[in-house]
Amino acid sequence: MRRTLTSLLMRRLAAACAATTAVAQVRRQGTRPPQDAPPELRRPAAAHDHEHDHPHEQEFQPPQKPSQEPQFLKLSTNEKGVTTVKLARAPVNSFNLEFFQELNQWLLWMGSNEETKAIVFTSAIPTVFSAGLDLSEVHNPQQQRLTLFWQSFQELWLILNSFPKPLVAAITGNSPAAGCILAMGCDYRVMARGPKGNSDARRQYRIGLNETKLGITAPAWTMPAYAYLLGSRQAERLLQLGETPVADEAQKLGLVDLVVEDEEKALEAAYQMVDRFLLIPQNSRWMSRDMMRREYLQMLASDEDRNYDTEFTTQMLASPEVQQNLNTYMERLKSRTRK
């Protein structure tokens, strides 16, 4: 992981919660709090900090803007500094290693880019926000690539939940599994009920963590956020059954904040919510978010935690039982496509 964090942020995080070192490591890559962080939040360096042993961490070195144009993202920034990030990996915005890496790199840069004031996530592909993980990454996987893939997924979760600027999801289509996880990392979720002009209640978009239906589990580090949004009992039930409620039900459960008629209205509502976030002094807004989300990061709070999670998950995914379940599921998908 890249090492470019201000000593200011390191002190801020240590004072806030020593256990969440994962946040500090992600922020070394570029995200940081607003520049006007008050002096009282800057804990004086203690002897055990050993900052004098790491002179390269004394000053913030912001990440460079990625040199290549994004392959799987469409980016645009309006006059207010709100950047719209459209997921654009056909056919269904499934996350593979390269997609994760690209998204992480751009988010790290935007987290430090002063011209970026907020981000709205949406999709460039009709009727789908994101279908989740690319199953080709976990079906008959190559071990080294699977490890990098899972570490990049962890990194995205850390970035989202330590991001210093408002994040709003305009969920303009179905959003199972990792699509739901991306949305959970945002500060506000507005979801389209269905396609524009749709009058069929059976065609409402769905969202949720459906991993058990594939014979696997959702990442353990996403479950505290899922339980926080839905309540522990409802989260447990939905996780066990792999259910993905339709938009209106998801709002009742607390998984999304607002449901509107279609994709166009979802984007409108997302920008309106960004305006509300930006009216608040950003330092206090960010600190409130940061303190509320510490629990979301506990399971990835150290190198040891992240390595254990990676080892456990990659072994689980490579097990014969899981591979057989994935093979059955993918064959079922192929048969549907042929029809």
From TrEMBL:
Swiss-Prot/TrEMBL GO biological process terms: fatty acid beta-oxidation
GO MF annotation list: delta(3)-delta(2)-enoyl-CoA isomerase activity
Pfam families, per the entry: ECH_1
Record-level GO cellular component terms: mitochondrial matrix
Catalyzed reactions: (3Z)-dodecenoyl-CoA = (2E)-dodecenoyl-CoA; (2E)-tetradecenoyl-CoA = (3Z)-tetradecenoyl-CoA; (3Z)-octenoyl-CoA = (2E)-octenoyl-CoA; (3Z)-decenoyl-CoA = (2E)-decenoyl-CoA
Alphabetically ordered keywords of this record: Acetylation, Fatty acid metabolism, Isomerase, Lipid metabolism, Mitochondrion, Signal, Transit peptide
Predominant place of localization: mitochondrion
Cell location: Mitochondrion matrix
Bias (Basic and acidic residues): 39-59
Domain of life: Eukaryota
PROSITE patterns associated with the record: ENOYL_COA_HYDRATASE
Pathway the protein takes part in: Lipid metabolism; fatty acid beta-oxidation
Gene3D superfamilies on file: 2-enoyl-CoA Hydratase, Chain A, domain 1, 6.10.250.170
Signal peptide range: 1-24
The protein's role, per its UniProt record: Key enzyme of fatty acid beta-oxidation. Able to isomerize both 3-cis (3Z) and 3-trans (3E) double bonds into the 2-trans (2E) form in a range of enoyl-CoA species, with a preference for (3Z)-enoyl-CoAs over (3E)-enoyl-CoAs. The catalytic efficiency of this enzyme is not affected by the fatty acyl chain length.
Family membership: Belongs to the enoyl-CoA hydratase/isomerase family.
Subunit composition and interactions: Homotrimer.
Protein name from the UniProt record: Enoyl-CoA delta isomerase 1, mitochondrial
Organism for this UniProt entry: Strigomonas culicis
